[in-house]
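Thread title: Can someone regenerate the structure for this chain?

I was given the following input by a collaborator and told the matching C-alpha cells would be attached. They weren't. Posting the sequence so someone can regenerate them.
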Amino acid sequence: MVLMRSMVAEVKALFAQALRAAFPSVQQEPIVVKGNPKFCDYQCNNAMGLYKDHGQALGFDSPKAVAEAIKASLPKNDMFAEVVVSPQGFVSAKLSSAWLEVQVRGLMSDEDIQMVDAPRKRVVVDFASPNIAKEMHVGHLRSSILGETLCRILEFCGHEVHRLNHVGDWGTQFGMLIEFMKEEHPAFMEGGAMPDVSDLNAFYKAAKKRFDDDEDFKRRAQVAVVDLQAGGEMARKAWQRICDVSRQSFDVVFKRLGVQAEERGESFYNEMIPPLVEELKARGLCQESDGAMCIFTPRVCQIPLMAVKKDGGFGYDSTDLAAIYHRFFVMRMDWVIYLTDMGQEQHFHMIFDAAVQAGWHKPPITRVDHMGFGVVQGEDGKRFKTRSGETVKLTALLDEGVARAAEEIAKRVAEQEKDGGTAMLATPEEQKEASERLGMAAIRYFDMKQNRTSNYIFNYDKMLDPKGNSAVFLFYAYARIRAIQRKSGVDPAKLDTSVLRVTAAGERELVLKMLQFPDVIETILGNLHLHSLCEYLWELCGALTAFYTNCRVLGVPEQGSRLVICEAARVVLAKSFHLLGFQPLERI
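Best answer:
Regenerated them for you:
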C-alpha cells in the first residue's frame, strides 16, 4: 500500500514549526494558500496579522520583518527549493523538483495507492433508500451514486464503512396494498407467480385510488395494517413477497450503477420504537402535546418531532429516532451520514438535535451530517418528467444514457474506419461493453460534477459532449495515455523511474496537479462536496492536454522520464475513476 499525503498539510506543517520557533508566545495557525504559479507554489500569509496584533510587542517594525523571521525559522527540509519574502510580508515557497520526483516515483509502486484519515472511524452512510412496491425513479439517482462514491472515498481513507439502504418497507400503504392484492390477485397471495415491480407500481396506484374512494376498502386496509404489525402469518407472507419483488428490481439497478449497500429498512426498527419512547418519556425528553408524544428541538425549529402520533401510531419521526439511536448507541458508530434531498434537511437536523438531548450523539466525539442534494430538472426547470408528466424511471434514464453513448462510440468507430483505418473497438461485443461503461460514467459524472446542494438541468447532449466537461472527455484522456504507452512499446510496470526529471513547465504543472489529489480528498472529508473531485479531474485532464502540447513524449531524449509522468497521471486518474464508480476504457 502506497500512502499519499496532502501537500498542503505538509507545507502547513513546515510553516507551523516556523511560527512556533519564531513566536513561541503567540498561538497561530499557519495561513497557507496556493501561490501564483509564475512565482511560487504556496504562500504563507501570517505575517500581516502577526504584525498588526503583536508587532510592537515582539519588536518588529514591518510585516516584512515578521515574514523574514518566519522564513529564518523554517526547519531544514527537502520540500522547498526556494523561499522568498515580498515587501508586503508574503512568504512564498517553491517546491523542489527533486522532492516532486520522489513523490511521483512513489505512485509507481506495484501496490495500490491509499490515504489515511486518522483516527480511523466507524461510519454509517444511509443512502439510496427507495420505497418498496415502487420503481426506482430519477429522484433516486443522486442519493445512490453520491452515496456510493462517498463510501468509496471513506474506505480509500481507511475508515470502516457500513453502507445502509434505508428502504421504505413499513407503514399504512402496505395494508392498502395487501388488501388490494388479496381481492384482485389472490393467486399471488397463495404463492402464485411473482409480478414485475412495474405491476406492483400499478397495483399501488390502483390500491391508493380505492383507499381514497372506498370507505369499506379503507377500513379493511387499516385492519390489514394492524394484522401486519401484529405479525399475522398471511399478512407477513404477502408483505415479504412484495418486498422480494421490489428487492430484485432494486438489485438490477444497483448492479448497473455499481452500488453496494446492506438493506436495512424501516421495519428493522419497528420493535425498538415502543421501549425507546418509554425511555424518553421517563427521562422527560418526550412530552405530551395536543394528544401526541413529542420531542421539542427549539434550537432547530418550533415544530416538534412526533415520537408517537395522535392515533397512537408511529411515523417517520419515530423510525428515524430509533435508527439514529441504533447507529450511535447499539452499532457504536463514530460518524453517521444521511443522504436525502434538501427538502428533508430540517427534519434531520431535528433528529440530530434530539440525539444530542438523549446523549446518543456526543459532538465532537461523534459526528453526524445531512448530505442534502437538489433535484434533477428537465429543460423547463421543473422536476424531470416524461412528456406525459410521469416521473422518469431510473432504468429508462440509464437505458437512454447507454443508447446515446452507443451513438458516440459508433461515430468514433466510423471515423477510425474511414479510408481503410482500423477501429479501436472492432467487435460489436466490445462496442456494447464500451457503451455501457461510457453511458454509466457519463450519467454519474454529469450528476456528481454539480454542486450537490443545487438543482440541475439534465441534458444528454452536454452529458456526452466529447469536448466539454464530461466523462467522455475524461475517458479520451485516459485512453490517450494508454495509446502512448502501447506505441512506446515499453511495459509501464517496467519503467525505470530513476530517469525521471521534472524540468519543463508543462511537466511541473502536470506533476503538481496530480500530487494535489490528496488535498482534494481531504477537502471532501470536511465538506462532503463530491463535485470537488470532478473539478479536479477536469483540471488534471487539462494539464495533461497542455503537457502533450508542450512536451513531446515519444522519440525525444526525455521519453523515459515523460513515460513515467504519464503512468503516474494514469494511476491517479484510475483511482479517481474508481472512487466515482467509473470503469475506464483502455481504447476508444
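The chain has a mean pLDDT of 93.
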